[in-house]
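Quick one, T. Sequence first:
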Amino acid sequence: MIFYIAGILLMSGRTLKYLLSVCRTVRSGQVDREGGVLLVRSEKNTFAFSFFNYVFINPSLSGREVREIINHEMVHLSQKHWFDLLLVELVSIVQWMNPFAWICSALVRQNHEHLADEEALQRTSDPAAYRAALLNQVFNARLISLSNSFNFSFNTNRFEMMKKKNYSPYRKLKLLLVLPLVAVMLYAFADPVYTYSDSAPGSLIKDIQGTVVKEDGTPLAGVTVNVSGTSLSVTTDETGRFYFSDLPAYVGIMFTAAGYEPVALTAGSVRGATITMKANQRYANMGSVSQGLLVMVDGQASDLSLEEATKKLGKDFGKSVYLDPAAAKTKYGDKGEKGAIEVTSRSKAKESGIILPYPREDEADFPTFRGESFLSFADWVAERAKYPADAASRSVSGWVRMAYTVDTDGSVSGIKAISDSDPALVGELTRVMESSPRWKSPANREADEPFTSEIVIRFQLPDRVSNGIVYIMADEMPQFPGGDTELFKWLYGTLKYPDQAKGKGIQGRVTLRFVVTSDGYVEDVSVVRGVDPLLDDEAVRVMSQCPQWKPGKIKGNPVNVYYAIPIKFSLQ
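Structure tokens:
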């Protein structure tokens, strides 16, 4: 027993020595963040290897070699190979007298390298450069057992495996042959490992793009399109078009532009749609205050500017009408020679029997649907609408835009299509909308009046990606604009750490898999290895907003390609 314990202490000391060596290298080397990892450059590194979130290289390596090494080591990090190495290291310490423990350790490490080579070759744009980088590594150096070395187990078999393009999934199951042995050795002191599944509700809407136009149908550029609850926003181009990648169907999309009424919809209702923005009566045609416009408020000339008068009226603002100089001078004399703005308050209009709509701006000004925002009505309708058999048989699909009014008693009326859509699709949405439960009046009683809005629902036959071929490997793999460095810069610049996760101290690395389509868009984002639903959902949300990629190619033709990426959440 004393001899056995002495062996454990000796092995533990050996491991501790290696750990201290790594720590000294980190402290003495040049540490930079590249591609989501900490890159340590040190003359002590005669070979490249990864250790937890660190990648160690020699400063003499070329930029191309560094990229290929990071590409390889990122696979180790994303697949959490360090966890496997930690387990086999513990087994080797406790079972140091058992030769099978050492065999198990070697097999696990060799399998790690094959897995890393397989995925790294899929990611690199030049497989030959990857193999050359491996050849350039010194392979007779002492290895640190808790790290993944780029050149570990460099032999003919590994190099031949790298040249193969079709990998059987059964090859990866070879590691299972050693699991019974590991299970027996670890049974007495194993701890349970809890995993989390991706529980994000609903599906993600792909290729969220549309066009914003004025009331006359001309494109409206410069409109800010914001995803509610996030900092993500885009601006429409000169053709009025905007684009987002995948977003949950229920998330709110807000369209705002100076001089126009804001429009609030959901991601599920804007894809492929044409959004019409109405001129904001407060500012429509008002020109510049510096031009000396005459401001008339409820029939009285005001010394205030239009902006000041509007602000003073607040919620009592009703409407404004612009008079050109000729009309203003005819009506008001010389005071109106530069034009005039006639502002009417809601209270003044009411005295004349005219009811002007309440200016809804705050959440309390809108009626609520089943305790949630009015935006959730579109999701409720989409969940209950069934694809009409007649429309499906005719391969009819597309967007349907429906208007509706919520009356003061909470009922829904005025349901009608405002898009040129197939009658079968319109009829199905009308059926569902007519069955709507009663809405709750706005919290602000002043806003308790009929509320008119619209929803846009898409009827879509099975999409092309789910039916088409998705390749695991391509001659040219998909690439984010600017490469992996720019990808991770964009990711971590967009990422928001969930407050609940912070409060619970939840952190870790979420590995995602997605499809980069032949058009370069990111689709079908899913969690391969999760940490917690809070972090998993945030990772999916961010990746779903990813800008367009350069698509992968086979024989020069763009194809759909699977891609995987790790996203690290750290409270440090």
